[in-house]
Amino acid sequence: xxxxxxxxxxxxxxxxxxxxAQAADVKNIVIVHxxxxxGSGWRRVTDILVGRGFNVTIxxxxxxxxxxxxxxxxxxxxxxxxxxxxVGHSYGGIVITEAGxxxxxxxxxxxAAFQPDRGESLLGLASSKxxxxxxxxxxxxxRFLYIDPATFPNDFAADLPKDEAAFLARSQVFAxxxxxxxxxxxxxxxxxxxxxxVATADRSIHPDLERDMARRxxxxxxxxxxxHAVFASQPEKVAExxxxxxxxxxx
Length: 251
Prior knowledge:
Layout (H helix, E strand, L loop, with lengths): L1 H20 L6 E5 L10 H9 L3 E5 L6 H12 L6 E6 L2 H8 L5 E7 L10 H7 L7 E3 L5 E4 L4 H5 L5 H9 L4 E2 H5 L11 E7 L7 H11 L2 E5 L5 H4 L1 H15 L2
Parallel strand pairs: 1-2, 1-3, 3-4, 4-8, 8-9
Antiparallel strand pairs: 5-6, 6-7
Helix pairs in contact: 2-11, 3-4
């Protein structure tokens, strides 16, 4: 009985925090990029949203561990003045699922992202519905992973011009195996409204897995015909979803 009351109290407290975060216009957007990429690919989405009056910040997390990446996201959230829409791409979805408990977070957007429940990890989810193609290699020390630059365009960004895909391959952030194996705690999407973009031509995360995770979380789903790099190939459509989410969370 005590445990039930404690659980209810925590849920109520989380709801109060979420309500407070949504009690003003949401003009801040914080983006957590995915693994095997960096934040530079979000330039066009950022420019569109800034032009529409939003304050956009991109977290350049180290991907050395899930804890490190949550902490890096928290440091950026601490700089925001007012309620914030927190966005995650790919592995970034794992990060925002934990970091989204921050009191400044009004809502979450998962962009071709992993959207885990309690006790799940990226590796576990990815193996449940394997993607069609992903040539991932280990670094010499066996601790980090990266995509073979020769196959990166096809695996990650097939709908981008070759030179842009090649740049993404050259600027990718290697991911620690530890980060991919880390299991999440209670997901923030249980106490925050969420949206999800499913990239229907994704070869890095199976589109059906993206759909399943989003439906389970009760997210508002938008499907876009794009590769895993949907943020770079379809920036206007992605920006529209983020703007719509921010407006829905505002008064």
